[in-house]
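ugh finaly. both done.
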Amino acid sequence: MTDRTHPAGGRILPIVLSRAVATVGRIFGVLREPELGAPWFADWVSDVGNFITFVAPAVYVHDLTGSATAVGFALALTEAPRFLIGPFGGLLADRMDRRGS
């Protein structure tokens, strides 16, 4: 097949991939700077920990009960403080003086 008859154009895919790799390299190249890379890595580690903290109780409850309903109830209970206390925190923050007096 020649380049004209190939649906993808023959040589187009390697060019697109090389541009994509170069773009990703430019974007993430910023992380080589310690001032940006270290906090980004710390945030990533924190996100992994948050994910594990979210998933572990669900796995544990499923191992104990074998019930999807119990897993859903357990996950709802872990989010309940945000839904119950969050609006009051927002109300308090709105009523506080922001000028720091």
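ok and the 2nd:
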Amino acid sequence: MSGTEQGRDVPQPRPGDAAHRVICQQVVELLGDYLEGGLDEPVRTDVDAHLESCPECRMFLEQLELTVTLVGELPAPEELDPGTLELLVMTFRDVSGRG
């Protein structure tokens, strides 16, 4: 990414170096807003440029898009029968440690 992000200069890293990993982390943090069209044009341009040169971030974006699509196809909680909803809530609590 080059230019600015939230008023800060964003460095132009080389693939594989530590700065590149930092930029990838910044891009990943912006991808939700990127998909929703919520980025300012200069930041979106920087993200686009980074995605063109970074296969890992492109793959992450593709996975995020697929996740959003699949989640959008799930039934709303009120459409589930009570037993299924209870099972899902219990499973979530077990996995998240909120039991």
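summary for the 2nd one i guess: Residues 35 and 65 are 8 Å apart (CA to CA).
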